[in-house]
Design goal:
Blueprint: H1 5-23, H2 53-80
Length: 86
Amino acid sequence: MTDTPAGAIFSAVGLYIASQILDSISAIGSIRSVLPTHYYDAWRDLFVPGLGATSSMARGALLVIPYTLVFLGVGWWWFGRKDILS
């Protein structure tokens, strides 16, 4: 939705930082579990013996699906209304 690649990069980094800050605030409760970066480090549990690492990794993988569908839908809608032939 921006005309410059740098704007897209900076907005993605800003979204990542804002999500990480919100994820560190425990007062917001269960909202933290639907943030895109909540399960970002779940793969680290694979290296700790005795932890059930696969459940948090599976939740993280399932969380990616709605975000992917929403952003692909918005992208499809956004570029579908653009005139790329002129």
